[in-house]
Write the structure tokens for this entry.
Amino acid sequence: MGQTNSEMEALIAGEYAQGFITQIDSDTFPPGLDEAVVRAISERKGEPEWMLQKRLEAYRHWLTMDQPDWAAINHPPIDFQQISYYSSPKQSPKLESLDQVDPEILATYEKLGISIEEQKALAGVAVDAVFDSVSVATTFRESLAEAGVIFCAISEALRDYPELVRQYMASVVPHKDNFFAALNSAVFSDGTFVYIPKGVKCPMELSTYFRINEAKTGQFERTLIIAEAGSEVSYLEGCTAPMRDENQLHAAVVELVAMEDAKIKYSTVQNWYPGDHEGKGGIYNFVTKRGDCRGDRSRISWTQVETGSAVTWKYPSCILRGRDSVGEFYSVAVTKGFQQADTGTKMIHIGENSRSTIVSKGISAMQGSNAYRGLVRVAGKAENARNHTRCDSLLIGDRCAAHTFPYIEVKNPTAKVEHEATTSKVSEDQLFYCRQRGLTEEDAVSMIINGFCKEVFQELPMEFAVEAQKLLAVSLEGAVG
Amino acid sequence: MLAIKNLTASVDGKEILRGVALQVKAGEVHAIMGPNGSGKSTLAHILSGRDGYTVTGGEVRYLGEDLLQLEVEERAQQGVFLAMQYPVELPGVNNMSFLRESINAIRRARGEAEIDTLSFMKQVKEKARQVKLDEKLLKRSVNAGFSGGEKKRNEILQMAMLEPKLAILDETDSGLDIDALRTVADGVNRLRTAERGMIVVTHYQRLLDYIQPDKVHVLANGRIVRSGGKDLALELEARGYGWLLEEAAA
Amino acid sequence: MTPSLSDYKRWTLQGIETLPMSSGDWMIDRRLAALERFEALGFPDRRSEAWRYTSVEGLLKQGFVAPANTSQSDQDDGIRNHLLPLATVGRLVFIDGQFIEAHSDYPSGGVRVSSLKAAMATGDRKVLQAVGSLSGLGEDGFAALNLAGFHDGAVIQVAQDVRLDGPLEILHLSSSRAEGRKLPTRHLILMERGSQAELIERFVSEDQMSCYFNHQVVEISLAEQARLNHKRIQMESRQAYHLSDLHIALQSKASYHGVMAAIGGCWSRTFISNRFQQPDAHCELDGLYLVDDGQLADFHLDVDHQVASCSSRENFKGLLRGSGRAVFDGLIQVGKGAQKSEAHLHNANLMLSRQAEVDTKPQLMILADDVVCSHGTSVGQLDDQAIFYLRSRGLDEQRARALLCQGFLAEIVDKFEHQALIELLNRRMNFVGSTE
């Protein structure tokens, strides 16, 4: 049996395919963080004074906070003075058209399979490409503008729609929320802003592609999506980074606001560099994602496929304020090598008849450690709240770990909350059965894992579902023996 | 087609097969009977290449090749099919897609083109009807939540679709009521051809009322202690295994 | 004003002074070391994960002092009111945390029973040294405080291959003299190889309004192939505080089955730690809790599979009425190399009132792959369709609700096996289908 384990591990220990480094000139701050750095970032971005004040407030609060230590993850302490808080490719700050994007950067995205040249792009998907700290390109802006949809870098939004940003930013994730949110609120450099006006169904999928390139830089993006009453949007994000020996920090904040009858679907395929086979290097991914179902019958759905990062700490959450509002969380998290993930969700039921669904699939292989941590809270006034949670862990090999930490807090007698969790392994019997029917071991493992993840994959938009399956397949590449 | 010579094998150091010899020609159906723990299932598993068994001696030639050298899937690709006593559940893996993946894997290995969707669908539906497998089960996960009878029918459906050269049925009758048994046996009989060899492993004679074997072998204490025609099965039904064991020990 | 740590220390020291001390200096040193540990740890607060949902403020405000020394009386002491027809082979009675020989019946043949106080008096070092060997000094101040200040308790040893014909009972009665006091006891139960026993523990109170703090630590050691069925019914006074720590260690092929009920008290917490020390052991825990106005019931399970091939099953069910609160925290750990472990945990809650609150936290921590583990929890209410069905068959709504509540808990209640216990539980739980 030991042999089969190691064979299976060989299958799973595929190489990281997105680990190349792009050679471009960049404007990078020296490492270190103080008020001057916060001011400099704000200045670079040409921000209004109120934004600078908010940043400084967040920075000062951050100084009073300690890094959280409750998650089931272990990593050496992060030295926040060793990180550069801003890096931007050197080019004219305002691009008139995509033709002006540095060809090296365009090539980078091509290589990653993301085309930001409109004529080559996937039909029906608009892309905002964030390279290190800045947004380098946003496609299909004009066609979106016709529908009244704003899709741009958040730094542009601060210039062009300051009142909108001011109204909503930090209204879902205040800077005091947690250590990493405070840090992000002080030093965020770019990210995506989406505004869908009343009654508009966004005519295409929106997507942001994040790329960390520069060494020793942190990436602190900030995403804000506002869906006005009756509007709908589906948003996708993808993430990669080069292979580097040192750990890099990614601390993003994502805020979603859904008004009456609005629907937001937010999908993530996270494939940051996970570190090498000895656990060296890789991205530390500390992300605060939260959606606010502010209006009645609003709906926010998080779907994530987390295959990368050395450490993942993220809990995309829904505050179900509106009556009949719906929150969903579908997650596949894969940890292999020395990867560690502590991820899950919070569903805070405040509105009457609010409903939530949680489906979490954790796969641990080799020395990977995977924890589901989730909170379902039903407040006293949330009449007839419903939650159903299903958490499954799949273990491959006897050195990995799978943990499940659900918290269920109910203060209303009409609530129905159910939580189920199971732990299983890819069994010898299953592999033998598939092979006896003619499949190779590689195909058998991949088939069993895809079957395990099916409920989550089917929640992804079509293009991403294919990408996610491919990503798992790439992870499984490397053939037996 | 299959020639087993003096096969010995052990599990965790314990000798289970102590010199098994068996010849199966194309077109023949051989029944292997024997009391519990006699090594019947071990033999079926070794032929299909399952882990956990150590072959300590002897040889198995299949179509002239050394079968024991082949990987599990290579044996399947070359036409060895094992219908299992306890078919495995594969949660989330669609039954029909699984079947198609299998067929194509086997076809690819033989240098044949992949099956086209239309004829695949047609065949599956027709064959599912023949083994009386509810069509709904084709859309569910492989064996997940199937009843015992449904699992066995699903095995026979797979066998019919994969068209093996050598089919090994391991205790396919266990846990079946008489109707299910008849359906399963019909399915097997439909697959009897002049090119196909079959080994039917069973504890009870009743399956052999429906699948008439050409030869019956009794396996006891890791050896074939008696071979004969189908009358041997009837004799066993009447007298049990005891007398044979005594004879073998004597 | 809430007493300080040093107040607690002083009260504990005063309590120790009243104890027989022929056990020698080493015993005092050990108590002092535990007291030091207590001072270092302090009392837990909600920042501690294990106490996230359970506040100790109310308990600490009471400032419970060490118990009075009850005289060994041959009066009835109200014991008779609490006896049940249980066909016991022996009964140990504790009044206000002190063993009362006059009311106790020693079992015969194969079982050795004594009190810790007697062991202290005779300086029985072997027994006294075993105290604390399974519990250690603990992670929160309470366990250390108990080890420093325990006054009495039972020591039960069941000899090799002995199988008791009937249950042993330990009855804890709190009298009105317990008012304002802390009753720190410890039991030590040693099941030798191949022995089998059933133990029934009950906590009852003379006065339903008296306020005291029953603070108990139980250490249970099961040698190879030993089996213990342990039933515990907590029916303290409605104003009482109750804290029990159970530490169970199992050797190869041993089996422990605990059946717990928490019904009384304004604040009760039961912590059960189950350690498999050798393979092929089995543990089952069943529990029920019922809380009404002003009550909190808290169950904490820590089932630790560090060796291979052990199995455990946990099933806890709770009913919440009035402003009752319940906390359930069930942790299953499977250590590296503990292959072929099997563990299944279930927790279900019925919320019958608007003011009630339940916090439940089942946890799995798995470090081996060849395991079958699951947990499930649910929070819900009575099924309207079922109520309708019963009403359509002529029952009034109250009766219908009562029946369904009873039905919900029945699978746990049945595990108490003895008719007398089942009736007692059903009577005390008084299944009135009160909602709103």
About this structure: Residues 95-109 of chain B form the longest helix (15 residues). Chain B is about 40% helix and 30% strand. Chain B has a mean pLDDT of 89.
